[in-house]
């Protein structure tokens, strides 16, 4: 974390403004104060999220910026309640779109729980300001959020536990696509919960404008259909927003205020565009801050340097970005089919993450098989599985590995229906996950929960190639296989694995064989077993250990759920085996591999390392924080060897 400097926007200018919602009209003075607070907060959000962007740790600007007016009014009601005014209000900004975490950090700072200067370290490694809010992790942050569709149902329970108070839920048109929200709406209505939704209906999600890609989707009509009291208005009309919020708060039961506005109103260059969803580009932020006359903030932003980049590792070559490559390789395979065949036998389901999972290239090259599914992981997975109901047809499905946890039940039913699905789960593990713990994809072996006998009839396979060449060969090999195929990749690029002579291990002539483990380095002292982004780090560790005289070998286990009997026989004779992985130590490969070795007569020493700590923010540093960088892996090997 870089050293503290004073926050260059005067946050002390913020004026706490308790407002009594029984007065539905703002006085001129109240309006002036409210407007000044809104402007100040929007300036601060643009500034410190842009600092994160300039440092290379990313972030989100538009969503938090959008919702400032309703956050400010809700805060005024909270202050009024705190002074004993009615109605009571739970003083927490439940936000179902956790990427708008800038709101949480800013409010924590304004409430005096977080030094203003800390905001300059948004999303930095070890700064405790990760990409999504985590309760008890950042001072003043009272909720954990980040998986869309998970917060409204939760806030319903909070409303039940606080029957005398209003609960605010910041909503978004993206979150509202999740099926969970439909369930939450029904419960809120049937139990007449005193929950007030403030939905930022900006018609922007990651992959586009819902009004374009999700025809028929209408947040207000949907919620009305569930029986909510719904009121639609313009989010940027402050007097109107205020009186609508007063009416919502002073009436009993659930109310949804749908606040229409373009994404990032007033920010030149990103207003109304999907680019507003992510972190604001530095030049757009500079234009904005200059326009606001915030010279110190401009000077600070201009001085920000990119964070340290990842070190180079021994045994590693050129970098490949497997998550993007996925779409390109699928395109090549689709190119090899007639259009008629493609349309009849393949359907590709996006979950609004498109480019992040490499699906953008498929949409561009093969729109005829592409479904822009919106943010509906469970339903889209089942649709992909249903498309692959018949032999010779398959659904292709992609999202982040973290959200694999959401679809386990759907996977079970797909398996029992003998479906054919190729699933690409990108952003596995914790590498480069500034989004932090809620976005860690570490429980992926849950996908292997089928009953053994059923698996024999209809396979479930989990593959995690270690570099771009292995991915290419793997995908070509498994594309037309029946069953459920889970293919994992990382957010971070991975380098090519090299042999002792500096040649590609998975270069020309390599052919992927499902279920076969590969020796990356031979060793007499024992073996590290690894996969994915951990292999090249383990390779560096193994090279170093050999140099120190400990002849450790390395195995790449790219098929996660088949035991390669030849390799298991070899490992069963080894003096030690240590699994090093980017998955959860509680549920990962290491938690089962030792039993498999024992079954095969292993008498050596065994250990396994993986993700075991709450995330630390930042990028590649996440791996070292978990003890999964070369130093950490080498240390664990030495501890095991004794
Ligand atoms: C369950 C889940 N699926 C997908 C994502 C990835 N994701 C983060 S934000 C986002 C789009 C959100 O759109 P919206 O909530 O309307 O936010 P805005 O664009 O207005 O900031 C997606 C798909 C996620 N965080 N959680």
Automatic annotation (TrEMBL):
Q: Which organism is it from?
A: Stratiformator vulcanicus
Q: What InterPro entries would the database entry show?
A: PDH/Transketolase, THDP-binding, Transketo_C/PFOR_II, Transketolase-like_Pyr-bd, Transketolase_C, Transketolase_N
Keywords, A to Z? Answer: Transferase
Q: Which cofactor does it need?
A: Mg(2+); Mn(2+); thiamine diphosphate
Q: Name the gene for this chain.
A: tkt
Question: Does the record's keyword annotation contain NAD?
Answer: no
Catalytic EC class: transferase
Query: Entry's Gene3D superfamilies?
Result: 3.40.50.920, 3.40.50.970
User: What SUPFAM superfamilies would the database entry show?
Assistant: Thiamin diphosphate-binding fold (THDP-binding), TK C-terminal domain-like
Coiled coil ranges (UniProt) are none
Name this polypeptide is given = Transketolase
**SMART domains tied to this protein:** Transket_pyr
Q: Which GO terms describe its cellular component?
A: cytoplasm
Q: Work out whether the entry's keyword set contains Coiled coil.
A: no
For this UniProt entry, the molecular function terms from Gene Ontology, in alphabetical order, are: transketolase activity
């Amino acid at each position: 974390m870089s050293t503290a400097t004073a926050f260059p926007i005067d946050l002390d200018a913020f004026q706490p403004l308790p407002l009594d919602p029984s007065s539905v009209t703002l006085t001129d003075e109240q309006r002036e104060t409210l407007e000044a607070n809104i402007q100040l907060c929007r300036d601060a959000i643009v500034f410190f999220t842009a600092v994160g962007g300039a440092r290379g740790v990313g972030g989100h600007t538009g969503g938090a910026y959008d919702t400032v007016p309703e956050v400010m009014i809700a805060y005024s009601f909270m202050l009024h309640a705190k002074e004993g005014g009615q109605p009571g209000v739970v003083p927490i900004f439940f936000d179902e779109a956790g990427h708008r975490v800038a709101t949480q950090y800013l409010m924590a700072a304004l409430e005096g729980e977080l030094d203003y200067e800390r905001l300059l370290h948004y999303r930095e490694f070890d700064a405790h300001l990760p990409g999504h809010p985590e309760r008890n992790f950042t001072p003043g942050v009272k909720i954990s959020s980040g998986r869309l569709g998970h917060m409204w149902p939760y806030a319903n329970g909070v409303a039940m536990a606080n029957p005398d108070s209003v609960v605010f839920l910041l909503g978004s048109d993206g979150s509202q696509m999740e099926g969970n929200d439909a369930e939450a709406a029904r419960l809120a209505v049937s139990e007449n919960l005193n929950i007030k939704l403030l939905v930022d209906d900006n018609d922007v999600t990651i992959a586009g404008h819902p009004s374009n890609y999700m025809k028929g989707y209408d947040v207000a009509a949907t919620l009305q259909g569930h029986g909510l009291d719904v009121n639609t208005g313009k989010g940027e009309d402050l007097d109107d927003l205020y009186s609508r919020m007063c009416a919502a708060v002073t009436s009993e039961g659930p109310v949804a205020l749908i606040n229409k506005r373009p994404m990032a109103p007033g920010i030149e260059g990103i207003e109304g565009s999907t680019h507003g969803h992510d972190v604001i580009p530095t030049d757009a932020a500079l234009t904005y801050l200059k326009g606001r006359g915030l010279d110190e903030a401009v000077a600070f932003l201009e001085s920000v340097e990119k964070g340290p980049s990842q070190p180079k590792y021994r045994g590693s070559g050129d970098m490949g970005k497997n998550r993007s490559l996925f779409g390109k390789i699928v395109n090549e395979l689709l190119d090899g089919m007639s259009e008629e065949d493609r349309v009849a036998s393949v359907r590709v389901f996006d979950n609004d993450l498109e480019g992040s999972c490499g699906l953008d290239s498929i949409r561009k090259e093969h729109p005829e098989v592409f479904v822009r599914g919106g943010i509906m992981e469970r339903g889209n997975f089942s649709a992909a599985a249903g498309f692959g109901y018949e032999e010779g047809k398959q659904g292709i499905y992609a999202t982040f590995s973290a959200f694999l946890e959401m679809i386990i039940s759907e996977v079970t039913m797909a398996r029992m229906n003998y479906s054919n699905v190729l699933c690409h789960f990108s952003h596995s593990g914790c590498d480069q996950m500034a989004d932090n713990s809620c976005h860690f994809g570490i429980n992926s072996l849950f996908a292997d929960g089928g009953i053994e006998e059923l698996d024999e009839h209809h396979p479930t396979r989990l593959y995690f190639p270690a570099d771009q060449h292995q991915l290419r060969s793997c995908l070509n090999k498994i594309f037309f296989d029946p069953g459920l195929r889970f293919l994992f990749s990382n957010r971070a690029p991975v380098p090519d694995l090299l042999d002792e002579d500096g040649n590609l291990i998975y270069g020309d002539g390599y052919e992927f064989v499902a279920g076969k483990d590969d020796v990356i380095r031979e060793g007499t002292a024992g073996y590290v077993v690894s996969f994915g982004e951990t292999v090249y780090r383990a390779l560096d560790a193994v090279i170093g250990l050999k140099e120190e005289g400990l002849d450790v070998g390395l195995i790449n286990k790219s098929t996660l759920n088949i035991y390669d009997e030849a390799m298991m026989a070899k490992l069963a004779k080894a003096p030690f085996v240590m699994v090093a992985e980017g998955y959860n130590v509680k549920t990962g490969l290491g938690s089962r591999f030792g039993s498999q070795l024992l079954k095969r007569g292993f008498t050596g020493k065994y250990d396994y390392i993986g993700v075991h700590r709450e995330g630390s923010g930042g990028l590649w540093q996440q791996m070292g924080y978990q003890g999964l960088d070369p130093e950490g892996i080498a240390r664990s090997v030495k501890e095991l060897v004794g």
